[in-house]
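Students often ask what a holo structure prediction actually looks like on paper. The answer is less mysterious than it sounds. You provide the chain, you provide the ligand, and the output is a string of discrete structure tokens encoding the 3D arrangement of the protein together with aspartic acid.
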Amino acid sequence: MKKNILLIHTGGTISMKEDVQSGTVIQGGENPLIAQGQLLEDLANFIVKEPFQLPSPHITLQEMLILKQIIEETIQSQPIDGIVITHGTDTLEETAYFLDLTIQTDIPIVLTGAMRSSNEIGSDGLYNLVSAIRTASCESARKKGVLVVLNDEIHSAFNVTKTHASNVSTFQSPQYGPIGIVSKRGVFFHHTPNFREAFQIDKVTKKVALLKVHAGFDSTLLYSLAEAKYDGLVLEALGQGNIPPLAVDGVKHLLSKNVPIVVVSRCFNGTAEGIYGYEGGGKQLKDLGVIFANGLNGQKARVKLQVALEDSSIRNDQLESIFHPFL
Ligand code: ASP
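The corresponding structure tokens follow.
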């Protein structure tokens, strides 16, 4: 029997066309994914929604919240078996992780996108859309959290990241790999995410910054964040979570204003931990009260800090345990 799929289009290259004259990829006119007719109808019954049509660099947490609300309202009022969201690839991992943290459902939620627009040679959009629909229709995709499907691979929202600016195999899960594959014969999972997290939010109001630490990074921007009344900061620190000595005073200043600071590693493999005892070393930062995130990249730690700060049931002194779900 055909499954009922909620299909939400949000924009991105998957719904764009290349202008042959100028060679630029543009959004405009009817979304080419909507006019697929029989091809998609053979796969499932669809409820199609298009709340906005934005390139994903234009997507903010407000749009992510709209998606959460659409999904929650639709699954409460209709018998939905799976959800597919088409999205620009630049910020796809952030939307996927936001939805993973904020929607509690066993129904599969699958995000997909494309690296080549609809009329380009080797366009991957329709193919990825079909793979995402097949995954969302699959019984074994239930209870796995939000999934990202492109290029025949199924990734978890927690681990996946865009790794290449233009290659179709851009979505990877560094260190862990995909959790399943989509083949011509079926959808197969070889791993299962072993924990879920749930936050209650109905607004996004906090200001959370993400800064990348580099050789010679100092306190200037950290003082500016305090001045601009930021509510939280994620630092993509060096190696296992170290910063230059000149930045330590800025960290102390933000902490003295009760601005939580989460540290991740700017390396895309491994986790940041308080190991080094020298000035600016992770051990010193941890002793000062900086929180070390467990294996998240910077952009996803930022989403998580924002979501945690928006959840009124969470106190700031609980943030550390939230960023260490394995401990
Ligand atoms: N810049 C595009 C976007 O994220 C890239 C894509 O969709 O692949 O909207």
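The chain has a mean pLDDT of 94.
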